[in-house]
Design brief:
single chain; alpha+beta; Aminopeptidase; 7-stranded mixed sheet; 27% helix; 24% strand; globular; binds coenzyme A
Length: 171
């Protein structure tokens, strides 16, 4: 089944969403729509099926991000700062739909949007803060690398722009 992926709207049933983790559950229920429509501080994209358009299979949220040269980005150190990037602020699949490839599908869609917007406003790639160390392996599987932490508490990864483009193949 190929889901529809669209910007979050009022008909999406946010209350029923459960990915098994509190933070993304609360975000979709309480903040995602307002943040997208009214505050315009992030954009949440929702996947649903044609048969049941209100049921949320999964979602991801993108925000603008700026990077102040972490050591692993030394190549950029002479460029004007901050550097513009995209952040994958949330990615979650409802438990009923997990392990069926939808996480990958939404991640690839987020990478595609990162490449598409660069045609209008340049960015250096897609960043993410994996919510737990076990999720690091999920992102590694798509080529994300750890950003050298300036803050040892922070677990941040990124997929450089060229890798985003390579992962999508010819477009
Ligand atoms: C993590 C999450 C988004 C993955 O989505 P999913 O639909 O279950 O994953 P997929 O079926 O698309 O799996 C794609 C690949 O990632 C792997 N994978 C999935 N979850 C993984 C995990 N937690 N750790 C490591 N690898 C994982 C799968 O094995 C699969 O690899 P394969 O193709 O080699 O078999 C989903 O489990 C989820 O929503 N978890 C709760 C919220 C969360 O932790 N989000 C991450 C925020 S940073």
């Amino acid at each position: 089944m190929t889901p529809t992926i669209e910007v979050i709207q009022s008909f999406h049933n946010r209350d029923a969403f459960d990915c098994g983790v509190d933070d993304p559950n609360l975000f979709i229920k309480r903040q995602a729509r307002q943040a997208t429509e009214r505050k315009r501080i992030s954009t949440t994209y929702v996947a649903s099926s044609l048969e049941s358009p209100s049921q949320i299979i999964g979602y991801y949220t993108l925000v603008n991000y700026s990077v102040i040269v972490p050591p692993s980005l030394r190549v950029y150190k002479t460029y004007p700062h901050p550097l513009l990037a995209i952040k994958l602020a949330r990615l979650a699949i409802d438990q009923k739909w997990q392990s069926r490839g939808f996480g990958e599908l939404l991640l690839v869609d987020a990478i595609r949007k990162t490449v598409e917007v660069s045609g209008m406003i340049a960015n250096i790639g897609l960043f993410v803060d994996p919510s737990t160390s076990s999720i690091v392996e999920f992102y590694k599987g798509y080529g994300f690398a750890k950003v050298e932490p300036t803050d040892p508490e922070k677990l941040e990864m990124w997929l450089p722009f060229d890798s985003c483009r390579r992962l999508l193949g010819p477009i």
